[in-house]
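We include the pair:
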Amino acid sequence: MIRRDYLIVGAGAGGISACEGIREHDKKGTIMLVGNEIAMPYQRPLLFGSLLRGKSGNNHTAEKICVHDGTWFQKHHIDLRLDTFVTQFNIERRLAVLGNGQAVEFRKALLATGSRARRPQIAGANLGNIFYLRSLRDVQALREIAETEHQIVIAGGGFIALETASFLAQLPKAQVTLMHRAPLWLRTLGPEGSAWLGEYLTSHGIKLMIGETLNGFEGRTVLRNVQTKSGQRFTAGLAIVALGAEPNLALVQNTPLAYPHGTPVNDYLETDEKGIYAVGDIAAYPDKILGGVRRIEHWEAAVLQGHVAGANMTGKKRIKFEYLPHASSVIFDLHFDFLGDFSKPPTRIELEGDLAKKKFIVRAYQLSTLMGVALCNQPAEKIEAAKTQLREWPRGKKSEAI
């Protein structure tokens, strides 16, 4: 039997940050960090920019995106278990079982199991050369294949879909088609901004199929053709499916920690089971700024949550988690920052700036309430001003320019 004061399941942003938070307040408590990937914990947002743009086989690039190297874990006396799954998690007995059969008895635990790519239930979804991008290994393999397979289809319209399209479109001979069921980024940029974005992508050589959805993939062992629900059929040697993600809750299935849309936590990121915390993609936390309960799949949020939860786990701090959602995305020479809540279609959109000059701000409202701000190629002071405006926005007040 292995005994640890703290068991952290998941070696991503939340898990690593939790280790840092614990060590700030507890230098001696024993920590085990379990991750199912072979690679050292890395910064997932840098995968596309660092690896897709880099030369194939460039191991140095992969090393540069690591959060910490092995020396850091040794220095802070953290028992790091890579390429390891937790197969059982017993809340009552405070016991976990690893994939190798070892049992771990813990005093407190943090669940940071992240999310997995959503896979469509269509024919041929498991053929070779079809990618569901989540890991370092996925992106490294994609970079290799993209050098030889030039007819590329991307299904999806979110950050990963558009960022990947922009990177791959810059490769020699690449012919990139982007397929999405609705206008791109309509909720965040509004109708005018969405139309402009579509024209911008087209001008950079990306073929758009708006209003189309996947019906199936064809091929014996690897992808050869793509079918759409409208009946179109065209050749493709490489496909990326980016249709969102689902929280990894299998470990706590049939327990109070597994709800359909995440693991509920309180202001301190602790579940109803005392001593069990959850952060990152799986954590459904009370949003004190924008209201309601929120689950965010953003790197920055996971880092902040992990740090707060780690400190709270030690019992030497009692910190509430408060966060204004902030996500960034880079597409060719466009740097976007998205602040606030865009989960519902806005009732009103305000556009400030010039789309043609690629410098603008979009504000999204629910009736009279400002809920989200999207900024394109704006300086840091504009971003901070937008954060302040969202935090301080009273109901019924008209917009003031940032």
